[in-house]
Amino acid sequence: GVQDEGEPGIPGVEVTITYPDGTTETVVTDENGYYEFPNVPNGESTIEFKTPDGYIPTTENVGDDTKDSDGTKVTVNVDGKDDPTIDSGFIKETPVYDLGDKVWFDEDKDGIQDANESGIEGVTVTLTKPDGTTVTTTTDANGNYIFTDLPNGDYVVTFETPDGYNGPTVVNAGDDALDSDGQVVNVTIQDADDMTIDSGFIKVKVGDTVWEDTNKDGVQDEGEPGIPGVEVTITYPDGTTETVVTDENGYYEFPNVPNGESTIEFKTPDGYIPTTENVGDDTK
């Protein structure tokens, strides 16, 4: 708020005076930031400084009246004497930018947001600023999020794993506008917005085969056929259930199983009884 030695004047700034009779006059500061109204009558006048582009006003009235800033609008009482102390200081406005993008469900687990893959609502996203402070937001109904008014600097974006998902998908698999940048992302803002910081999350598949154990040894041997049409029901961690039916090869799958404890139940097919359990390689 004080004009120190070496701080330059700002040329081209409009300064307007409103005289006691209500008339106005406007001048423009010269190459040194100097302005003058040479013929001001006695009485109360008002001087207004137009904020120059790229600047904001500095602190007002913090010191010696010949060196401090009087603000952008100043009332002056003239009584037959010159007043060369009506000045105004400005500071360069720090440019700010936006950062954001999307959190989505990567159904095919390829690390790329495909056209049919939807955003995930309500995901917590935390931004750690260059000074170590943090700010948090949540994704909207389409999975979008944004942090605004960020000056240049190094940031960290952290995506919380959303409820019902297992974790992040493949990272940096292709086009930066469509691929996943991971769960913790270092970002440098440098004179531009960055709306490419996104994160994909997956759910895991659970499944295998229901088969006829012809030799009754509890192991699926080569040549032992799958059993089609068997009902298989999963109870998810939240208590909801889903039922599928084995295909012609006895195969079944639950493609989107969230983290947590689920229970899978096989309905015994007509004409069969369960074979011996857990006698060998878990894949067979």
Structure description:
Helices cover 0% and strands 36% of the residues. The protein has no helices and 19 strands. It has strands at 14-18, 24-28, 43-49, 55-57, 73-78, 90-92, 97-105, 124-128, 134-138, 144-150, 153-159, 167-168, 184-189, 199-202, 204-209, 231-235, 241-245, 251-257, 263-266.
Task: Please tag this protein with its features.
single chain; about 280 residues; mainly beta; Immunoglobulin-like; four-stranded mixed beta sheet; about 0% helix; rod-shaped; Sdr_B; SD-repeat containing protein B domain-containing protein; signal; secreted; SDr/BOS_complex
Write a brief structural summary.
The protein is 0% helix and 36% strand. The chain is an all-beta fold and 284 residues long.
Which strand-content bin applies to the residues?
A: 35-45%
Task: Please report the total strand number as a whole number.
Answer: 19
User: If helices are DSSP runs of H or I spanning 4 or more residues, what is the number of helices?
Assistant: 0
* Average pLDDT level: 92
Query: Largest beta sheet: what is the strand line-up?
Result: 2-1-3-5
> CATH fold name of the largest domain, please?
Immunoglobulin-like
Distance between the termini: 78 Å
What is the CATH C-level name of the largest domain? Mainly Beta
- Describe the largest sheet: 4 strands, antiparallel
Which CATH architecture of the largest domain?
Sandwich
Any idea how many domains?
3
Low-confidence stretches: none
CATH superfamily of the largest domain: Immunoglobulins
Instruction: Tell me the helix content.
Output: under 10%
**Looking at the structure, what is the overall shape?**
rod-shaped
Category by helix and strand content: mainly beta
Subcellular location: Secreted
Organism: Staphylococcus rostri
Keywords: Secreted, Signal
Pfam families: SdrD_B (PF17210)
